């Protein structure tokens, strides 16, 4: 009985670690729950109960005798992290690795899953800003195109460092949007032929919470109402912070 209890605790810890990593990487809740249940059942647990939310995951084993909560304080968009954890759970289900190897590999994923370097993220932000500007307005301008790339790149840089050194939600989006609006206004003063609307729409696309909104809808369609509504509200608040930042600057400058 003691050995069974210790094994159940080990399975519980590994399942919670997997769920924590997936939520941290931005996974939808149905995938988090499916991954945790797959690990628990293939470890020999017959009655696992899982409940996942964007801020924490709950797991109960042994008919409710063994329950634990894992709080998730930080959430980012890192699909590589989600993919690696999901693949490990499938390898465990296919008997390619045992429980101890799964534990070791999950800890390796937690510490060694690198994000894209900042310089590559900035290149992506510049490319996204300029190309989406063309997509939305169906027009190409030799002045607006590089301007949108510059504003999007520098605005993302501001967002990156504010988010890195502060823990106040939505502050980074608000200040980055204000910076983008101010920079766009200054570019317009230097080059009157530039369009403020086109540049700002393209640049702001780097911060629009598209994946968060998509996951919110997926959670709602899957029946995870608490998670879906919470993520939807979070996405709306981010959009309001972006719009508010632009509105404050434009109102102040009278643009």
UniProtKB/TrEMBL annotation:
This is Threonine/serine exporter family protein. Its main location: membrane. It is found in: Cell membrane. The keyword Transmembrane applies. One of its GO terms (molecular function) is transmembrane transporter activity. PANTHER family: SUCCINATE TRANSPORTER SUBUNIT YJJP-RELATED (PTHR34390:SF2), UPF0442 PROTEIN YJJB-RELATED (PTHR34390). GO terms for biological process: succinate transport. Residues 13-252 form the Threonine/serine exporter-like N-terminal domain. The chain crosses the membrane at residues 115-137, 143-162, 169-187, 199-217, 229-253. InterPro entries: ThrE-like_N (IPR010619), ThrE_Dicarb/AminoAcid_Exp (IPR050539). Belongs to the ThrE exporter (TC 2.A.79) family. It is a multi-pass membrane protein. Keywords: Cell membrane, Membrane, Transmembrane, Transmembrane helix. GO terms for cellular component: plasma membrane. Signal peptide: none annotated. It comes from Lactobacillus mulieris. Coiled coil: none annotated.
């Amino acid at each position: 009985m003691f050995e069974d209890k210790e094994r159940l605790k080990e399975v519980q810890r590994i399942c919670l670690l997997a769920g924590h990593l997936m939520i941290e990487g931005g996974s939808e809740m149905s995938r988090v729950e499916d991954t945790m249940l797959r690990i628990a059942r293939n470890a020999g647990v017959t009655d696992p109960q899982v409940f996942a939310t964007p801020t924490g995951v709950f797991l109960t084993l042994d008919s409710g005798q063994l329950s634990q909560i894992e709080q998730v304080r930080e959430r980012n968009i890192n699909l590589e992290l989600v993919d690696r954890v999901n693949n490990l759970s499938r390898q465990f289900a296919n008997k390619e690795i045992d429980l101890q190897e799964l534990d070791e590999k999950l800890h390796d994923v937690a510490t060694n899953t690198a994000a894209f370097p900042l310089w590559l993220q900035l290149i992506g932000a510049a490319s996204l800003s300029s190309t989406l500007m063309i997509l939305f307005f169906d027009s190409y301008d030799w002045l607006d195109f590089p301007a949108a790339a510059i504003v999007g790149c520098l605005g993302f840089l501001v967002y990156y460092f504010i988010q890195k050194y502060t823990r106040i939600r939505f502050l980074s989006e608000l200040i980055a949007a204000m910076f983008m609006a101010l920079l766009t206004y200054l570019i317009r003063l230097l080059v009157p032929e530039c369009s403020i609307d086109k540049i700002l729409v393209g640049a702001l696309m780097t911060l629009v919470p598209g994946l968060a909104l998509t996951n919110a809808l997926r959670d709602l369609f899957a029946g995870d109402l608490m998670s879906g509504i919470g993520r939807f509200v979070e996405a709306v608040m981010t959009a309001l912070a972006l719009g508010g930042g632009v509105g404050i600057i434009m109102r102040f400058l009278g643009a």
